[in-house]
Design a protein that fits this description.
single chain, alpha+beta, two-stranded antiparallel ribbon, about 10% strand, flat
Amino acid sequence: MRAVAYEAVFATLDELDSGSDVNVSGIDVGWLVMESGEDGTPTGRALSGLHEDLLAMDPSGREGADLWQ
């Protein structure tokens, strides 16, 4: 079950990181995940590569090695 949850979160973060819907053609719009300050105003810093850091956040320190065992 944890592997399914991991894959769902990974796919969501990967989609956010892509900046657009890769399944839709002919549309020139997209999105960007931005950091905001405590008051909610944008800092101007884009947050990217979120999906790449997901395994590093494993609290066990095993980087998800036990998810598929």
